[in-house]
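Subject: sequence -> structure tokens, single chain

Hey, anyone have a minute? Need the predicted structure for the following. Not urgent.
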Amino acid sequence: MDYQAMGKRLKTERCNLNLTQEQLAEDVGLSPAYIGQIERGERNISLDKLVLIVNRLGVTIDFVLSDSLSLKTDEYDVVINQLLEGKSKEEKILAVNMLKLIFNYTSDK
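Reply:
Had a minute. Here:
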């Protein structure tokens, strides 16, 4: 398990949301020191605490563990699934239709 890579991803996502370590810690019921240790890869984290953090940050566990997972799927499949996660049926249909248009346009060239 690459705890440093996981911590870096968590920190990046926290910063993308303009959250401090203190705010994240308060939101998930952990100490700011513990959040810092996780982000620096100095501390192992239990699954239940990781779930709290990724849910607050709005990312998936496979995203933060991607450096430690050997996935059979293409990395772009994972990104597309993450982008579509939580979207309505209408938004998913729109996204698929947009991709079809792009692929149709590029296959004509």
